[in-house]
Amino acid sequence: MTGPTSVLPTSVLLVDDDPLVRSALALMLGGEPDIEVVGEAADGGEGVRLAAELRPDLVLMDIRMPRVDGLEATRELHRRPDPPRVIVLTTFDADEHVVDALASGATGFLLKDTPPPQIVDAIRKVVDDEPMLSPSVTRTLLRRLRDEPDDAAGPGARRADAEARLGRLTDRELEVAQAVGRGLSNAEIAAELFLSVPTVKAHVSRLFEKLVVTNRVQIAILVHDAGPA
User: Fold this and answer.
1) Would you state the pLDDT for residue 154?
2) How many CA atoms lie within 13 A of 32 on its CB side?
3) Domains, the chain, ranges and CATH?
4) Within the chain, how many helices (H) and strands (E) appear?
5) Burial, 91: exposed, middle or buried (Cβ in 10 Å; 0-12, 13-18, 19+)?
6) Which end of the chain is more exposed for a tag (fewer CB within 10 A), N or C?
7) Distance CA 41, CA 46 (A)
8) Are the C-beta atoms of 97 and 90 separated by less than 8 Å?
9) How many CB atoms lie within 10 A of CB 76?
């Protein structure tokens, strides 16, 4: 007779040059039964090295650090096979930081003044393949996308590229992509489209492959670039 199957906690690596911030995060996350802090690093280079050694599920990454900053560290992690998910946690919500972090492969972007319960919730959602952005960061990203001019390749180049990539999808996959573009969670998409949550997750995984993206935020950007259906 076999006993119940145990579920391993989500392993988290903290990367921040401020030891007080790392201590506060470690203390906060240490009280969660489903989260385990497995290591700490004081700069991006050390964070990349520890991530290779410890294989965490998720990295909480500061942006501004000496030697190797958080954006370069996130890019380096993203270039490696089976990279951990990354949530950028910073005091700055400047437009370029948001877009650069997401383009570098980050799955979430939170401000350091985000209430602790929301940081814990963000970790759980990101590990479940749902992006997490602070509301103010979401507004910043949408404003940046709305105001950003077309690429130098020519007027409408981004729209044409987005339409071509979305054109690879089945009707159902397109519905899921558009729902992701509206910021809906897997559960909300399931309720709206009368699907099970596992089915939605399977659709989202196929979207990553067909659209050649690495996170849901990039799906949302494609949907935005394509314009109204």
Assistant:
1) 46
2) 22
3) 10-143 (3.40.50.2300), 155-226 (1.10.10.10)
4) 11, 6
5) exposed
6) N
7) 6
8) yes
9) 19
For residue 36, how many other CB atoms are within 10 A of its CB?
A: 15
Amino acid letter at 116?
P
How many CA atoms lie less than 13 Å away from 105 in the CB half-sphere?
A: 21
Whether the predicted model's global pTM rises above the 0.85 cut: no
Euclidean distance between CA atoms 36 and 32, whole angstroms? 8
Tell me the C-alpha distance between 106 and 71, whole Å. Answer: 9
The CA–CA distances, whole Å, from 138 to 103, 111, 131, 182, 217 equal 15, 11, 11, 11, 10
- In angstroms, the CA 121 to CA 55 distance is 21
Q: Averaged in consecutive runs of 10 residues, what is the pLDDT profile of the chain (229 residues)?
A: 64 96 94 95 95 96 90 90 88 67 79 87 84 62 59 64 92 94 83 94 92 79 79
